[in-house]
Amino acid sequence: MKLAPLRRKDIARCVEIEKQLFAGDDPWSARAFHSELDAGGYYLGAYDDEDRLVGYAGLVSVGRPGDFESSVHTIGVDEAYQGQGVGTALLRALLAQADELNAPVFLEVRTDNDRAVGLYERHGFTRIGVRKRYYQPSGADAYTMKRPARTAQEVR
Ligand SMILES: CC(C)(COP(=O)(O)OP(=O)(O)OC[C@H]1O[C@@H](n2cnc3c(N)ncnc32)[C@H](O)[C@@H]1OP(=O)(O)O)[C@@H](O)C(=O)NCCC(=O)NCCS
């Protein structure tokens, strides 16, 4: 498995995986992925030995040097490839990018998504709030989670 910048030709595959993973929660369209890339988001794909996309993740950072803030916009791994470290590798790569910018990282995750919440907690995120009915059409709640900027982690 290797990580590389997400290619536009893989967006159709992302959309396929989105439908599998987020069926009840308004999965992203191809247009949504294109606009994330157009906006300069840091998007990575995870590719198997046959160069097939098996997962993807995206981080968006705003601000200016000395004052950046990042958000994990998405992370997904094809169900057939879950539990093999792909999600961890994608998340770590996004966090390395945020650390380059010395940015705190925010994300939203369904409150019932134990696996993802556990993954984030093991990578320095804590829950800072709940957004009621954040996901539609399911109406599921989200935790907002935050991982402090690298310098803030060092002085803790
Ligand atoms: C969350 C997700 C990205 C993790 O990807 P993954 O490739 O399965 O992750 P990994 O194999 O790196 O495993 C991550 C953790 O989940 C645990 N895990 C993996 N498969 C598991 C399973 N079947 N049951 C319970 N825990 C499992 C692993 O033990 C690992 O924990 P560790 O850090 O203690 O080793 C993936 O499950 C996914 O795409 N889920 C659906 C989409 C989603 O929820 N995205 C996040 C939205 S905010």
Automatic annotation (TrEMBL):
Organism: Amycolatopsis acididurans
InterPro entries: AcTrfase_RimI/Ard1, Acyl_CoA_acyltransferase, GNAT_dom, MshD_Acetyltransferase
Protein name: Ribosomal protein S18-alanine N-acetyltransferase
Annotated GO CC locations: ribosome
Record-annotated N-acetyltransferase domain positions: 1-150
Keyword tags: Ribonucleoprotein, Ribosomal protein
Domain of life: Bacteria
Pfam families assigned: Acetyltransf_1 (PF00583)
